[in-house]
Write a structure and sequence with these properties.
196 residues; mainly beta; 3 helices; globular
Length: 196
């Protein structure tokens, strides 16, 4: 399996699935590797259309779906084809597979599903950095990030499959995110006057 954004050599993920075991959330999971290493992806200039989901009483897990460009979408489609070969190993039907690529309504870019853990205080196993200065953000700064107003460079990893009630799929987790605030008003006053 080849990921063009990383320009890696051809890779095969067959027979790289670990033992399927029970996890603490009531489902099952299995480790996944490529040539004995985690599958890492580098995505540039990503945006997300959503705020992180509201905090619940059980978990800090948040959704941080990223807009997928054509290249990323093509890679994830090929990844799906490879992963579906594991249906028998995880004890599920191929039809129960959930793709990392989430299709949207016509006219909207598909999304790359991500999972990120952030506590209300901003603590996260993912490292956040400020573009330009490359300064690592404090927990307090992370807690205040305006997600829909950011452009992000993301290093993420796909290292496991999850199984729950007949549904299954891969988990993608960001490791490091470089954030930059998007320009929310890219025109000057003269441009605004033409709209009157």
């Amino acid at each position: 399996l080849h990921y063009p954004l990383r320009r890696q050599r051809q890779m095969c993920i067959r027979d790289r699935l670990g033992t399927v075991s029970q996890n603490g959330r009531g489902g099952k999971s299995a480790s996944l590797s490529v040539n004995g290493k985690p599958l890492r992806l580098t995505l540039r200039s990503c945006t997300t259309p959503f705020e992180v989901s509201s905090y619940d009483r059980v978990s800090d897990r948040k959704s941080l779906d990223l807009r997928a460009d054509d290249e990323t979408a093509a890679f994830l489609t090929r990844l799906d084809t490879e992963l579906k070969k594991y249906a028998g190993k995880v004890g599920c039907a191929e039809s129960g597979y959930t793709s990392l690529l989430k299709q949207q309504k016509e006219g909207f870019a598909p999304l790359f599903r991500q999972k990120i853990t952030i506590t209300p205080a901003g603590k996260s196993p993912c490292k956040f950095f400020e573009a330009g200065t490359k300064k690592r953000l404090t927990d307090e700064e992370v807690a205040e990030l305006p997600w829909r107003d950011l452009e992000m460079n993301v290093i993420c990893k796909v290292t496991s499959l999850w199984v729950n009630a007949g549904r299954w799929g891969a988990s993608s987790t960001p490791e490091a995110i470089m954030v930059k605030r998007c320009d929310q008003c890219p025109f000057d006053d003269a441009d605004m006057e033409t709209w009157d």
